[in-house]
Amino acid sequence: MTDHTPHDDPERHDDPEGHDDPGGAAPGWRNFYGRRAGKTMRPAQKSYLSEDLQALRPFGVTAEENPGRAPLDLAAIFGDARPVWLEIGFGGGEHMVHMAACHPEVGIIGCEPFINGVAMLLGKIRAAGVGNLAVHPGDVRELFDVLPEDSIAKAFLNYPDPWPKRRHHRRRFVTPDYLVPLHRALAPGAEFRVATDIPDYMRQTLEEVPKAGFALEDHGPTPWEDWISTRYEQKALREGRRPDYATFRRL
Ligand SMILES: C[S@@+](CC[C@H](N)C(=O)[O-])C[C@H]1O[C@@H](n2cnc3c(N)ncnc32)[C@H](O)[C@@H]1O
What we know:
By secondary structure, this protein is of the alpha/beta class.
C-alpha cells in the first residue's frame, strides 16, 4: 500500500513519503524504498539512455560487474587526476549539469536509481555540452562500496527523500548506514552540502552528520554562491516551504 504525494510534474516521481513495501529490486541485501521507473519516457529520452549512458557509466560499480568490489580508478574515468565530486540522488540533473559547467576543472559522479531522472540528466548533458560527468544509474550504496577511501573532494545531497513518518526516519540518508561510508569516501577536509525543505530532516542532519565525523561550517536560509535551484526546491517554494542549507567539513 502506498500513499504517494501527488505531483504536478508528470516526469518526476513521487516523494517516497509512505511506502511500506520496497519499490525496486535490491542490490544484494539492501532494500531500496524509492522508485526506479516512472511514466513512459519520450522517444528522445529513450534514445539518450541507449546512446549516451554506456559511455558515461563507470564500469565496475555493480556487484555483477565487480563481485570483488575492487576500488574504481577515478583518474581513468575522468582522464586525469582531477578532484572528483559526488552528487547523491541527482533527480532531473539540473544541479549536476550546472555544477559541471561552473567547475570544468573537476569531475562529478552522480547517482540516481530513478531511470526517468537519468534520462532527463542525459538530455541536459547533451544540451549543455559538458564533458566532466560520470553517471551511475543506481543506488549510492553500490558506489560507496567501490569508491576509493578519501577520494571525493565534495559531496552534494539536495532534497533527499524526506520519509516524514517517524518509523521511516531510519531510511533517511542522514543515518549511519549512509554517513559512515560517505565519510570513508570523502577526503579529509572535503565539503558535504545538504539542502532540504523539511525542518525535521534538517534537525536530524544537524544531529547525525557531526556524529559521523563532520564539523558544521554553516547553516541557514542562504544558498551557496554556485547554487542552482532544483526541481524539488521549486516545488517546495511553490508549496510554501522554506529551503534550508547546511555545509559540513569532513574531519
Ligand atoms: C526528493 S528527490 C530530489 C532530487 C534532486 N536532488 C532535486 O533536488 O531535485 C530525491 C532523489 O534521491 C534519489 N535517491 C533515493 N535513494 C537513493 C539512493 N539510495 N541512492 C541514490 N539516490 C537515491 C531518489 O530516486 C530521488 O530522485
